[in-house]
Amino acid sequence: MTRGRIRARLRRSSLYTFSCLRPNENETLESTSLPDRPGYSRIVYCNQPLVHQKRPLRYPSNYISTTKYNILTFLPKALFEQFRRAANIYFLLAAILSLTSISPFSAVSMIAPLAIVVGLTMAKEAVEDWRRFIQDMKVNNRKVNVHKEGGVFGYKSWRDIRVGDVVKVDKDQFFPADLLLLSSSYEDGICYVETMNLDGETNLKVKRSLEVSLFLDDDATFKDFKGIIKCEDPNSSLYTFVGNLEYDRQIYPLDPSQILLRDSKLRNTAYVFGVVIFTGHDTKVMQNATESPSKRSSVERKMDYIIYILFSALVFISVISSVGFAVKTRYATPNQWYLQPNDPKNKLYNPHQPALSGLFHLVTALILYGYLIPISLYVSIEFVKFLQAIFINQDMHMYDEDSGTCAEARTSNLNEELGQVETILSDKTGTLTCNQMDFLKCSISGTAYGTRNSEVEIAAAKQMAMDLEEHNSKMPNFHQMEKINSGFEASEIELETVITSKDGKDDKHLIKGFSFEDSRLTDGNWLNEPNLETIILFFRILAICHTAIPELDEETGSFSYEAESPDEAAFLVAAREFGFEFCKRTQSSVVVRQRYPLFGQPVDREYKILTLLDFTSKRKRMSVIVRDEDGEILLLCKGADSIIFDRLSKNGKMYLEATTRHLNEYGDAGLRTLALAYKRLEETEFTAWNNEFQKAKSSIGSDREAMLERVSDMMERDLILVGATAVEDKLQKGVPQCIDKLAQAGLKIWVLTGDKMETAINIGFACSLLRQGMKQICISASHMDASAQDSKEAVKENILMQITNASQMIKLEKDPHAAFALIIDGKGLTYALEDDMKHQFLELAVDCASVICCRVSPKQKALVTRLVKEGTRKTTLAIGDGANDVGMIQEADIGVGISGAEGMQAVMASDFAIAQFQFLERLLLIHGHWCYKRIAQMICYFFYKNIVFGLTLFYFEAFAGFSGQSIYDDWYSLSFNVILTSLPVISLGVFEQDVSSDVCLEFPALYQQGTRNLFFDWQRIFGWMGNGLYSSLIIFFLNIIIFYDQAFRADGQTADMSAVGTVMFTCIIWAVNCQIALTMSHFTWIQHLFVWGSVAMWYLFLFLYGTLSPTTSGNAYQLLVEALAPAPIYWTTTLLVTVACNLPYFAHISFQRSFNPLDHHIIQEIKYYKKDVEDEFMWSRERSKARQKTKIGFTARVEAKMRHLKAKLQKKQSSSSYPS
């Protein structure tokens, strides 16, 4: 074998009693026909791929695409995306109208900005989709060995595979399509498959071929191979398959155990042969995929409504202008001979057709007042979001040293959406966990071993220590209470004794899968322990009761293990470290090398396997019956404690009480537990039972499984308890702390996993999504048979009843601290997601503190995400790391991919990519909070400044008799958004910080400002609009009043239109730039440069523009130097108007900070006066206030513990106040 590994060739079918037991070769099949109804029409001609390229079959190729666009659809779809924006539609109409003679501006000046804005955005979309295309091509161009003809195989690209092709897949390769397993490198057609990309599970699945195809184990055997497969049509169900194989005039039924699904991986098997059934988008994994959606943030969608409002205002004032112009044309134009009103060709000033003149003027006004709707807004937002994305990408606090990857904002469209997330839907395996189990603690013969604490215990203890310190500092009579409760044992107020002297950070542990620390058992010290025989038996159960295969690394001489579950691998590593190394498996035995025997030398002990009763989710236990070297027959069993404890004999419960107590402690620490037991068998007892068991195995009929279960249950009785194990499903670094912080920020967290319910619950405890005392609502349909239509209706009724009862229970709960957790499996979810039940399910889920959905398919993940998104109408975020998470990542408002070990499918489908789940805390609480406030304030300010500028144009036109005349020079208008006010607003959107990053993490409740939309609600939007209206009125009328008949020059001349317009424009520049300075909370030299530099830029522009020839500068020639600068009234008017414009806003923020401050206002005050350093108590008090009330996470666990301690203290105090 490669990489220096050696593996024995085994017939694995003898190890399995349920999942892999095949019927006898001579058994008569009761029924092999497919259901006679739609959905079962697919026909596959094995080894004849060309047949399927012709009608009526014509199956699709194996080419897949996950892009949003292709060459044909890019232009129409991308244009549709751009013109979904209301403002772009307006500017498109304005650009078209600019081609007419009634436009006040040239066509180029209207079309060019629109083309630039739309073109840049479409280019960005094209680049992002090109990246998806490149990833698709990498997958489509993978190579696989395909049968060509005459028993000769050759390599082809995945994209060239066709239905009916026979393919040979080697170890550690992905399956290129959905295949029917024909044979494998094992003699009996067994192979191991890893389905991590499909359901997120890391444990290996065992697949088996039909016995009739076992001879097809060599290339040459396929020379004349022919067969016909009739099966179900393409569908999204990962766990079902119905079909049959017609071969050699016989019909053989097929089931899911013979199907190898695309994107799963071949493991622990040298090679397999299979025939292609489904290709490309017909495969089950692609059937579970959803189309790449076009996502827009809620802020951007709301911005469209603001555009509608401003457009309505634009139309309103344009109508007023056109009516005024029509009236003027009708009554005043006949006296204005210079307009040539009697010229029949003059339709613009025709007093005989005032309505037509008014209509033409309406178009002119719509274009003239177009500054109310800023086209540069979209360009500025795109640029700001691009810079924000760069800051996210370069955040070194989100850099993962192990993988060398940084965070990546794969799209910048949703930056502000990160600050408004209400619900997080997370995958489990590879996202919350590391796909690694560590043996941490154990209980043997009633004695607890293992001093190392789990990550959950350490983090919770730290949190509790901080809370106790805060609590004690608030109790002035605490020492008196201590005195009163002097008899209170120290153990009752200790923090669960989990903070170690090394603070939980011990780098000594280097063995993967083994984090156990206890000198009583390590290094062979268990030889000195009492109950030595029980300890040896415990280790032997770990080393024998499993289905793993050892692999010897010739380079190191050590064994590693290919196990069906990570638990088994951890047990075997633990047994090895304790001195019981599983080193060999043969057809009928296992060999364990004891390194610490009583006589000092390693000894290989062989145990003959008589029977193995495998683990299933229904049985929740596994047993193996072995004969040791002394001829003694032993049944060794491990399983869930609830199952094992019910099967103990009367004399087997010696350690039951102590073991139960230890299991509760392990469960509270977030560890996964199993109980271990055994019993000795007499030869006659085993022989009699084995005869019954063989009869059940060889039986034919629908009750075969039930018979096997009944006979197995007979044997697994009267057990003797040995002890229990506790393994830690290694969470990714910082996951519990991250979940706790997100919970404090008010976010709800759902876990959607393909794992079993027991595994999901254990992870829930490890993450503190579940805790002791939380009431679990388990909804499941697994125990019911839903084969018939009537049964399906009954199951549906049962699920509805479970949901109704659970909702009623929550409503009747009177304890304010009560917490509920909803746990539902995939079958139950199938019914819960139906239209007539999904809203009741959602109401129940929303009422629960945490929700865990287990055994869910990728499509169910997407459907749950859609239900939460549409049902709650709140922002949802989905996070995952595998191909099975792509659906929910695309369906959520924000998709986050973990760039982990499961490939790049999730990352390629995501909007943001991070290396670890813990970085989600920083991505949301810091970057999300900042980006939301920045974009919200930026948009509000943008509309404010354009309202100020646009309305002054309307006022002057009305003042000038609706003449269509602009008071500003054309170059002033063009430079307003592009040069003079663009940089300050960009600096606001990129650099603004209400609080620092550290404070964002210390005060997670600040995040609620985004979820409550405090900075972009209608009250604030209309407030900014009102501010703009007020400023425009002040600027226009103060200037008109001052300059209307006031001497302007030294010789007594009054100001002309160009002078008044320039003064008015100067006031606008000063007012809007001072306004943005008042808006900013965080100043750097960049903000100062951009804000005050923009003001200076106006004077520089006015000076340089005035130096140009009069043919270019017109009335602005030498205007600043000769007319404005020498006039004191110019400077005093600018100062007066600027103060008058900003005074109301200044008064508003002063009042708000003094009498109704927001959270960040208080923090800013504390930081400014350095009270966080001088008064630590106040700082701690404010920090404790900044937590949202939550029932999940460490905080909730600590608070529950604190309530428990307080209750004990009060009880102790009340009892001590009475004399004995």
From TrEMBL:
Keywords linked to the UniProt accession: ATP-binding, Isopeptide bond, Magnesium, Membrane, Metal-binding, Nucleotide-binding, Translocase, Transmembrane, Transmembrane helix, Ubl conjugation
EC number in record: 7.6.2.1
GO terms for cellular component: plasma membrane
Residues annotated to bind Mg(2+): 427, 429, 881, 885
The UniProt record lists the keyword Translocase: yes
Cellular localisation: Membrane
Reactions catalysed: ATP + H2O + phospholipidSide 1 = ADP + phosphate + phospholipidSide 2
Any one of the GO BP annotations: phospholipid translocation
Name of the featured protein: Phospholipid-transporting ATPase
Taxonomic source organism: Nepenthes gracilis (Slender pitcher plant)
Lineage of the species this protein comes from: Eukaryota, Viridiplantae, Streptophyta, Embryophyta, Tracheophyta
